[in-house]
Amino acid sequence: MNARRSWQATIQCCASCSTRTRQSSVPCDTALPTRSWRRGWGSLLHRMMTSEVYYIVQGRGLMYIDDEEAEVWPGDTVYIPPGAAQYITNVGPDELVFLAIVEPAWRVEDEVVL
């Protein structure tokens, strides 16, 4: 018997970026929101109890993880371990666009804004 399962997952940004929630049918419990920031804008310093992976699509950003900072560019992938203090800010002239892969999907109880 070939059973195909599909779950209704919430594509939802976290409290640190205050983005609206959308619904999408995806085959797992993973949040994959696309985020974008204008020049000078970014997320608040926060910690997630789950890991995250950011994939930079467009623009230039400054990524902060615990006590390290690094510039990020299109094509860069950033792993953020669970419990790390983190934020990202747009430091380029263009809009910063990135995917934020969160697994399991983001939940309010998994995030602490510092």
Fold and architecture overview:
This protein has 114 residues and is mainly beta. The chain has strands at 7-11, 22-26, 34-37, 46-48, 52-58, 61-65, 68-72, 77-80, 85-90, 96-102, 111-113. It has a single domain (29-113), classed as Jelly Rolls, CATH 2.60.120.10. The strands form three sheets. The chain has a five-stranded antiparallel sheet with strand order 7-6-9-4-11, with no helix packed on it. A four-stranded antiparallel sheet has the order 3-10-5-8, with no helix packed on it. The protein has a two-stranded antiparallel sheet with strand order 1-2.
| Residues in β-strands, percent | over 45%
* Helical residues, percent: under 10%
Amino- and carboxy-terminal Cα gap: 49 Å
Classify the fold: give the CATH topology.
Answer: Jelly Rolls
Please outline the major beta sheet: 5 strands, antiparallel
Write a brief caption for the model:
With 114 residues, this protein is mostly beta strands.
What's the arrangement of secondary structure elements?
Blueprint lengths: L6 E5 L10 E5 L7 E4 L8 E3 L3 E7 L2 E5 L2 E5 L4 E4 L4 E6 L5 E7 L8 E3 L1
Antiparallel strand pairs: 1-2, 3-10, 4-9, 4-11, 5-8, 5-10, 6-7, 6-9
